[in-house]
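Chapter review. Work through the record for Redoxin domain-containing protein before attempting the end-of-chapter questions.
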Amino acid sequence: MALKVGDKAPLFTLHASDTSEVSLSDYSGKNVVVLFFPLAFTGTCTEELCTMRDALTEFNGMNTDVVAISVDSPFTLAKFKESENLNFPLLSDFNKEVSRQYGSLYDTFVFAMEGVSKRSAFVVDAAGVIRYAEVLESAGDLPNFAAVKETLSTL
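Structure tokens for Redoxin domain-containing protein:
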């Protein structure tokens, strides 16, 4: 079932690239951009997360934190975070439960890989309500960061 604006964001707890546990509830009282991305070390994913890295100060200035989720292992995400100097948590949804809850999971991806996160962007407000939801079918497309910022500017 696809999540839509106005829905309560499904809560989650996942392991970050440093193996610590990170929960959506950790961000209670703040806005959070929840990004899903297919796979670490791929071209469009690197472009997306580096774009967010470079704009993080602007997002933080809007009382907003960012987390990015993929089905990669925490160890793969640690190498990816280090290689790209990413400055926000990368979370492992290795068991695909959170991607499924958010309607952000391909049945079949490239090379017949099953259960890879779809590129998606959600804005969750300080009360845990989804204020923006974008789930992309094409992994080659980037989220509409301008629309994400526009949504945040109204919160």
